[in-house]
Predict the 3D structure of the following.
Amino acid sequence: MIEVRDLRKSYGALAAVDGVSFEVRRGETFGLLGPNGAGKTTTMHLLVGVLRPDGGTIQIAGEGDPTRPQTREKLGLAPQAMSLYPDLTGEENLTFFARLHGLGGSALHERVESMLALAGLTDRRKHRVRTYSGGMQRRLNLACALVHDPPVLLLDEPTVGVDPQSRNHLFENIESLRAQGRTILYTTHYMEEAQRLCDRVAIMDKGKILALDTVPALIERYGGASLIEAELEEPPVDGGHAGTWDGHMLRVPSERPLEEVARLAGSGVRFTSLHIKRPDLETVFLELTGRSLRD
Amino acid sequence: MSRVLTLAFKDLKLLTRDRASLFWVFFWPLGFGIFFGSLMGGMGEHGPRGMSVAVIDEDHSDASRALIDKLKHSEALSVRDTIPLLAAEDRVRRGSLVAYVRVLPGFEKASGFRRSDSTAIEIGIDPSRRAERGILEGLVTEASFAGLQQMFAKPDRMRASVNESLRDVDSSNTLPPDQKANIRRFLSSLDEYLGNVDTAVYRKGGGEFAGPQITAKPVLQAATGPRTAFEISFPSAILWALLGCTSGFAQSLVTERTLGTYLRLRASPLSRSQVLLGKGLASYLAGLAIIVALLAIGGTFLGVRLDHPGQLAAAVLATPFCFTGLTLLFANLGKTERAVGGASWAIMLVMSMTGGGMIPLIAMPPWMQRASNVSPVKWGIFGLEGAIWRGFSPAEMVLPCAILVGVGILGIALGWILSGRQEA
């Protein structure tokens, strides 16, 4: 559905997007995961044709030029910034963006109603957006991207600055869209979101894609062993176990952590606390870049 | 096109919801026009009400009352008859009245056929107002003769006056004998006539004494000055409104960028040209509506002439077009509201200062009027003034309107190029 080949965009000496290639399949939720400044938003802007690439090609639903109206009809964009008119009501915002996409008459009315319901804003439809909470605005931001019922949805950091309750609401919305078979390109710097929502994830840093695969495959390839952190009542005098000691704390990396815990318990040690830390996308990113996602 | 209209109407809706913007683009210029128009003289002494004069009646006779009544009914005068003499003199001195007319004691007696050496009416007026003095003397003389007409309706009173005149003639030592005889014959005949006159016919009116009949034919002066100061202040006010619109809409495009809505607009099927067109259309329609509203207020309540609809329409359509072009240019001069607001006002204040937005073009020295040619504000004011009071022919309107449209096209082209660079 989306095919990007060797995409490049520079600002002076800074290569914001540096030879990025990926493909998003029909009905897939594809994540671009990376820290701020990795080039995710620039990639989004290139995809919708707001920025002109220095090189590379973009294909969206078989169309090669994202600036063509026919291509844009197929795209719904929820930008990272709250892209709403604060002095219009929620309903007026939805109606305005629907009209820009050519909707009118009963179809317009039905879509607006449906999107107000999706965003949970039916009761607040006549209130100006400036009176909405951050979470309500985020939900409306998503609804405005969906109002013309596009087959491809581009979500740029859609949960930034949202309280946990609204974040869950958004996750449910996105999972429902995913279940409907909509193609979604999702950028985030929250690995939990990528792990929960995305079928495949591209890890991006400094304008490049460092790795691309399903989450389990990425973890398997780059995540390394699980880490067992066990606090013991009495550390053995001679050590006697693989791993590193820090006072009473034993840290053991293991490919099979449950078997390792069973072996420890069988050796007679008494645990004060036990924690198994499985590898995740954060670990993957650390492995790939030497930095944390939140650095 | 419907998408462009959707975009434009959204901007107009946002404008109406922003009370501060609405104040600056409409109510402030309206206040400006009214305040400075009033300061510069408002309706003036030659406004639609006529020449302002005070009349002081010191004779308190039927004849003096008839004279004042006649003056009050004159379309050429605006008569105040409750002001005492000293106050009237003071107002004439300060210029708030053109003149005063003082009807002195003895006016009624002097209005008959008796010769009188004393003054019956005094006109207080600045000696430099020769034209007004001539008009006023003519109007007072005309009104005085109207009093004579009334005397025929009361023949007894007039006969007494005639007889007094006869006695004066008889006792005169200065009149030559043949002249005495001539006057005696005339007055005796008049006395005889008055003795037999049918007073009922005179009371009915009609067939009054009058000179040759004069009819006023309206011939509009080709080149005329402003009739009221509002005709000067309102074009300036309109330009201030357009400057406000220009800055407001220029900043609104930047606000779209900072809010992120511009990205959403550009991700929709709208092209960059359509986004700019929608923004420009909103700016143009807002400017047009504000001009029409201000002119309607000026024309309805403040005596601003809207007598040349063709020329006015040309100015009203061309002026906001020019400022729409400037809106799109200024909107792309920076990436933040502060940058665009600062740049647009810095440029527009210079335009306004040189173009007659602050000092009326009519009050500028010739060299400054020539220098003002570089300012679109000048051509906006010039075009509107041309249609309102400068009496421009359609051919004369072509120059200001063509310049305004030219600047508008240039602004749109530069704005389009600069917006393309911002997206590069």
